[in-house]
Amino acid sequence: MRAANWKTCKQSGLMLLAAGAFVFGGASRAAAQERVNWTDLTNVEIRGNSVEKTRGCDGCSDAGATSLQEIQSDGGYVDFRVPEDWTYLVAGLASKTRGPGVGDIEFGIRLNGNGSADIVENGRYMGGDTDYQAGDTFRIEVMNGRVRYLRNGDVMATSRRRPTLPLAFDVGLGSLGASVANARISAGGRDDTLARNRDNRDEFETLDRNNDGVITRREWTGSARAFNDRDTNGDGRITSRELDTWDRRDGGFNDRDRGINGAVGTAGELIPVSATDRWTDTGLTVRAGDSISIEADGTIQMSGDRNDTAEPAGSRRNAPGALVPNAPAGMLIARIGNGAPFAVGARRTARAPASGRLYLGVNDDYLEDNNGQFNAMVSIEPR
Cα–Cα distance between 212 and 379 in angstroms, integer? Predict the structure, then answer.
């Protein structure tokens, strides 16, 4: 495994730590819910109900641990608490990992060391940005063939990828002192599915405010489209069976029209942004007020000087004739339609000021002597 320096990664805005490959040994099936038993400890210590990084490089991907138990079937989940909000770590589900790196964590929650968290899958940013505080509890669960991420019971996002079971709980700890506490795991199965069915009934009862056995448009808290999707017979009312049928078909989550703040990567693939093109058409159209999240990595060369390079956050010099003159030369920039260009950098989330096509580019005054490209991922959450 090649350890990456987290401090350098953080400056570039990506914090993607390298990883290798690893085979779990001696996995055992969990009961309905049980405390995680840790194995494959690297530069960590078990302290009571916590696993904490105590050795290694501060900010490097050189510490971690894996659960002995695994999620074996639908309905399984893992819960964990974060004792601090200033440390960097990734915790999630993985089928094959080797060592403490995080690149092989297939479904992960990343705590960025500044009170903010998001979703990464195999090291790739997938949205779900949320603030958190020390003591918050996170959950990653598998239900109806989907993976859902929650903080204190509120949905952060739902993965568009289908998990391949079994999956173990794996943590990669970057900061010295970073820890995960009170980790508990359930292998899944009938008991957990029954619990989810109870959750569906609880949701229906909450929406059915007058307790007449149906949810009317006035009681519904989501969008009109979401209501019509569930009102399968078109009578203007949603029954418990209609709601449950939709949840089973849709996975029970990832529907922002229901008031759930799920992250949907509109592109879902990396978009190459050439350093020699003034603008790259992302193929994505946004509406005024949409939340746009952009994350990028890569290195470009901006002249014949091999040392004149830039990452998405920009270089150490300015380019007075560039489209965004006050931003560093080489920085990733964007524009919507024919609007004014604006700085993006390695990572930015902002509201679209206008509607139109989204374009990405490089903040440089002369492009013909450039070389290389950035790789960007864009997520759009409708207003």
Answer: 40
Look at the chain and report how many structural domains it folds into.
Answer: 3
Can you tell me the distance from the alpha carbon of 43 to that of 74, in angstroms, rounded to the nearest whole number? Answer: 32
Rounded alpha-carbon distances, angstroms, from residue 361 to 64, 134, 148, 315: 37, 38, 33, 15
**261 confidence band (pLDDT: 50, 70, 90):** very low
Q: How confident is the model at residue 224 (pLDDT cuts 50, 70, 90)?
A: low
The pLDDT of residue 200? 58
Structure tokens that stand for 355 in this block: 């509607």
CATH number of domain containing 233: 1.10.238.10
Which CATH number covers residue 367?
A: 2.60.120.430
Residue 27 has pLDDT above 50, yes or no: no
CA distance 261 to 119: 13
pLDDT-derived band of residue 98, with 50, 70 and 90 as boundaries?
low
- Is the CB of residue 17 less than 8 Å from the CB of residue 6? yes
Domain containing 346: what range? Answer: 271-381
Burial, 171: exposed, middle or buried (Cβ in 10 Å; 0-12, 13-18, 19+)?
buried
For residue 299, the one-letter residue type is T
